[in-house]
Specification:
Catalyzes the NADPH-dependent reduction of N-acetyl-5-glutamyl phosphate to yield N-acetyl-L-glutamate 5-semialdehyde. The chain contains eleven helices and 14 strands. The protein is α/β, with parallel strands linked by helices and 351 residues long. The chain has two domains: 118 residues, Rossmann fold, CATH 3.40.50; 165 residues, Dihydrodipicolinate Reductase, domain 2 (2-Layer Sandwich). The protein has a seven-stranded parallel sheet with strand order 3-2-1-4-5-7-6, covered by helices on one side. Strands 9-10-8-11-14-13-12 form a seven-stranded mixed sheet. A hairpin with a 4-residue loop joins strand 13 and strand 14. Helix 1 crosses helix 11 and helix 7 packs parallel to helix 9. The longest helix is centred in the middle third of the chain and has 16 residues. The protein starts with a strand and ends in a 15-residue tail after the last helix. Bound molecules: NADPH dihydro-nicotinamide-adenine-dinucleotide phosphate and N-acetyl-L-glutamyl 5-phosphate. N-acetyl-L-glutamyl 5-phosphate binds next to helix 7 and strand 10.
């Protein structure tokens, strides 16, 4: 029996990637696609790459259009899911790609987002450590049977996956974490702003949200606290570069004095040894964003900088795949007891 699925925000980038992946999922059947300004349009007129979904028409995003499905994926602007979801049955699996339900701290929500706070849901990065869990326990344990799931911020999950193993193993310090990210403009969504005009982006690298103000900082801190960090401090600087998709995050932290380079590497290799979608590259190898495009894969390269006393991680993720839609589908698979890899591929597209 196929699960019936609705996707809200289906005219956007995250919604489009959800639909591309859902179209290849053996257990999921997309019945309803919703939008805002594009409601009434044929899906194919707005998302012409989704050829197998030509029969679908975008409808308005309301509790009525979203009700009656087994699963609802929300890919809406921040602040839109809380009120909407309160009208959906409690036994409907709702996976929100926005930020509305990621943060457990209302103060963090107020400081970085603002507006009504609707509370935290189970967090959709299965490979991260479970808060208060025993060694080896991960967030996926909290997703089993869940009916409300918060998919991650793409930059937040990338940096968190990069550093959580070292925190959990006690080989790096949580103070003085520094992350600098090259990111593609699709992370900002489809709506046009002057900053994202091709003429502003092509041939340039454009930093933004500098100096401790980026909304993903509290989400990373939350993930690292769940991994065992006490009072993590994170300097986070994203830079938009001319590639449509992708994140390349260089995340560094101080190594706990006296820790051997072998122990540092072992922490990462052990953390992800059995993870299909998070892979640690052999010593001396580092990923490129091109290696993960379209894939539900995070690739992590790792070096110990002995002179600086720091671990340097370089992590590549497709912001729309493992960074959003892939993570959302992976979490839904776990919630429903399906194989975690259903409908998802570790393989990217090249060139
Ligand atoms: N892009 C990314 O890499 C990532 C995105 N996300 C999150 O996913 C969500 C969607 O992002 P993204 O796809 O990039 O954004 P887009 O701007 O590309 O798409 C936004 C979607 O929401 C719809 N929408 C806009 N305003 C409203 C409204 N008032 N009520 C209902 N629907 C509305 C749009 O409909 P229409 O076009 O018809 O107006 C469109 O379908 C956001 O919460 C984002 O933060 C999370 C991780 C990464
Ligand atoms: C280029 C760009 O603007 N990227 C976005 C990434 C957004 C994301 O990960 O999603 P959420 O907005 O759901 O957290 C940013 O840095 O805010």
């Amino acid at each position: 029996m196929a699960y019936s699925v609705a996707v809200a925000g289906a005219s956007g980038y995250a919604g489009g990637e959800l639909l591309r992946l859902l179209a290849g999922h053996p257990e999921f059947d997309v019945r309803t696609v919703t939008a805002n300004s594009n409601a009434g349009a044929r899906l194919l007129d707005v998302q012409p790459h989704l050829r197998s979904l030509a029969h679908l028409t975008l409808v308005e995003t309301t509790p009525e259009t979203l009700s009656g499905h087994d699963i609802v994926f929300l890919a809406l602007p921040h602040g839109k899911s809380g009120e909407l979801t309160s009208h959906l049955p409690a036994d409907t699996l709702v996976v929100d790609c926005g930020a509305d339900h990621r943060l457990v701290s209302e103060e963090d929500w107020a400081a970085f987002y603002g507006g009504d706070y609707y509370g935290a849901w189970a967090y959709g990065v299965p490979e991260l450590p479970l808060a208060g869990g025993a060694a080896g326990q991960k967030q996926r344990d909290r997703l089993v049977g869940a009916r409300r799931i918060a998919a991650p911020g793409c930059n937040a999950s990338t940096v968190s996956l990069a550093l959580a193993p070292g925190i959990r193993a006690g080989v790096i310090e949580a103070a003085d974490i520094v992350a600098v990210l090259a990111v593609g403009p699709s992370g900002a969504g489809k709506s046009l702003t002057n900053a994202n005009l091709a003429s502003e982006i092509l041939g340039s690298a454009n930093p933004y949200a500098i100096g401790g103000v980026h909304r993903h900082i509290p989400e990373i801190a939350q993930n690292l606290r769940w991994a065992g960090a006490v009072a993590p401090t994170i300097s986070f600087t994203p830079v938009i570069v001319p590639m449509s998709r992708g994140i390349l995050a260089t995340s560094t932290a101080r190594i706990v004095p006296g820790t051997s380079a072998a122990a540092v590497r072992a922490a990462w290799e052990e953390a992800y040894a059995n993870e299909p979608f998070v892979q640690v590259l052999p010593a001396g190898q580092f990923p490129r964003t091109a290696d993960v495009l379209g894939a539900n894969t995070a690739l992590i390269g790792l070096a110990v900088d002995e002179a600086a006393g720091r671990v340097v991680t370089v992590t590549a993720v497709d912001n729309l795949a493992k960074g959003t839609a892939g993570a959302a589908i992976q979490s839904a698979n776990i919630a429903l007891g399906l194989p975690e890899t259903s409908g998802l591929s570790v393989n990217g597209v090249a060139p």
